[in-house]
Amino acid sequence: MLPTSEAVNDGPRHRASRLSAILDLLATRGGLSVSAAAEELDVSEATIRRDFAELSRRQLVTRNHGGVVASSVAYELPYRYRSTQHDTDLDRIARAAAALVAPGAVVAMNGGTTTTTVARRLTARDDLRTPGLTLVTSALNIAVEAVLRPHVRCVSLGGIPRPESYEVTGPLAAAGLSQLWIDVVILGVNGLAVREGATCSHEDEAAVSRLMVERARDVIVVAAESKLGERAFTQICAATEITHVVTTAPETHEQVRGLRASGATVHCV
Hints:
269 residues; alpha/beta; three-stranded antiparallel sheet; seven-stranded parallel sheet; 10 helices
């Protein structure tokens, strides 16, 4: 039996938050013992063992003696296990980015936690209900949520989905995009710098995002301060191709000044 305090607080929402916290710890440590997780999350070891068993059942972790280790899946955590976390930085970015989209626009988005938050803010805008909105996305989770909005025409690209990010990739996604014209693309990135531009960790995802940029009139990059000045494996687009950057970095940040010099309008939120 759970201790009384845990029994009261172990509803679906509380447990989802705890599973997300366990996955976040694994993302940085690689492995986690029952005792360490119990101490970190301030719950009983019995509760942690049940959580480990559930994550193992979902094939997100591998059990070992006394704990768990990250599974062989690349540890960009699936968004559904992070969505219960309250992140004011993401919300500030999302509000500012969503406000840049004109009613009736055709908007493309790649996947990730930041773009998912932007999509939720954008599709909830009351002023978009009458003219509507067309949302083209390579992210399955964004498409699933957007299709429930009656004023949103959702175009979900075909392709092979990556379980880590829900993004589809490959020739089917490229073929679908090649037939579309886009007003604005909103991109989540792994790195953003004046010299290297917007970058991504996976070439297959970058290829789809790159084509979105080629088909779009305006490019909005959404990135937390931690992404500025960083360079990931492969380029999505050059800094000179970016129209707007929405970031939590301060006005005094070196990359903010550099991106403005490259021609982007930078919104520090």
